[in-house]
Design brief:
alpha/beta, single chain, 344 residues, 2 domains, 3-stranded parallel beta sheet, 14-stranded parallel beta sheet, 8 helices
């Protein structure tokens, strides 16, 4: 007869939607310890308990689960572990939403303990206070970072807003990076994949006559000037446009493809940035509003850009001024080979 230990089955996948009337920490940890010991490959823990999230803490056994491949966590807490006890050799995908970290180095330790990690998503908790999202990985291919901080502009939310944590990236094989709804203080790129696609939607809360805050914008622009393929939001373009009125923009000589979203914005925030993209080959512009033809005023695009663009896509409403915008590019882009017009 097989022993009880031999009858223990291996778990391929385990999902826990934790929604109880009263949280018992010891029982919660006991259940997840059992899951970890059974060689789980895919683990999802969604905490729906309406209590202080600090009570729903992940067990230490999770830090050394040798079989774990995919990890998804929502509204739980990672304690600060001993670095020697952290080893997740098989984790390839990690999704962390509203997760609180007990110390600045916890997330960094977690990432560095995953030597084959390829896909990482972090949606920060608006009431967490760690200083920096530091991503150092020799295997990471896709990184998504989002913030819930901007949601706390609602006065009914019971805490004050502050900037999001600093961002520091050292991932030489990264192929895709997205940073969205993020209020930046500092953004440092040590390394990134040479052909990485980058999606940027960040804002800065500062006064333009403050030298310290001006330096923040300058450092951010230097960081993104190394990218080759960029999708950029209207909010970020507005920041860059305002900065360009007080300081010169750095050259974006590496940028070959730009997707510019001007949703809830206007054409005028784009030309100053385009003027620094002297090697731009592909341009996609999305506008959700164009005035009638008698009202539209097109700020000119520098000739150095017009002579390099060979592919153009305009996603705009169907108004008479749409053709005025298209005609402007058609007449002035001397290298243009392909133009596509579409509605929204």
């Amino acid at each position: 007869m097989k022993s009880h230990k031999e009858l223990d089955f291996k778990l391929k996948s385990f999902k826990l939607v934790y929604d109880v009337n009263e949280h018992f920490h010891d029982e919660f940890v006991w259940r997840l310890n059992k899951v970890a010991k059974r060689g789980v490959c895919e683990l999802t823990v969604l905490n729906m308990v309406d209590v202080d999230e600090a009570l729903v803490r992940m067990p230490l056994s999770l830090y050394s689960c040798a079989t774990l491949v995919n990890l998804t966590l929502y509204c739980v807490v990672f304690d600060h572990p001993e670095s020697k006890s952290v080893s997740l050799p098989c984790v390839k995908s990690m999704y962390l939403e509203g997760v609180k970290f007990d110390g600045d180095s916890v997330l960094e330790t977690l990432i560095s303990s995953c030597p084959v990690l390829e896909d990482l998503t972090v949606i920060t908790h608006p009431n967490d206070y760690f200083e920096v999202v530091r991503v150092r990985s020799q295997s990471l291919k896709s990184f998504r970072l989002e913030s819930q901080l901007l949601e706390c502009d609602d006065p009914d939310v019971g805490f004050e807003c502050d900037d999001d944590p600093d961002v520091e990236i050292d991932a030489p094989y990264l192929e895709y990076m997205s940073i969205r709804d993020y209020q930046l203080r500092s953004f440092i790129i040590h390394s990134i994949g040479p052909s990485a696609e980058v999606n940027i939607d960040v804002v800065f809360d500062f006064e333009y006559d403050d030298p310290v805050e001006i330096t923040k914008i300058h450092n951010f622009l230097i960081a993104i000037s190394t990218f080759h393929k960029v999708t950029i939001s209207a909010r970020t373009l507005a920041v860059i446009h305002s900065y360009s009125e007080v300081e010169p923009l750095p050259p974006f000589s590496n940028l070959s493809r730009l997707d510019a979203s001007l949703v809830e914005s206007s054409w005028e925030v784009l030309p100053a940035f385009l003027g620094c993209c002297m090697n731009l080959h592909s341009l996609v512009v999305e506008l959700d509003h164009l005035p009638e033809i008698e009202e539209i005023r097109l700020s000119p695009v520098p000739q150095c850009v017009l002579s390099s663009i060979n592919s153009l896509q305009l996603k705009t409403p169907s108004t008479p001024s749409k053709m005025k915008l298209a005609t402007y590019f058609w007449k002035n882009c001397t290298a243009l080979k392909k133009m596509h017009l579409s509605g929204r």
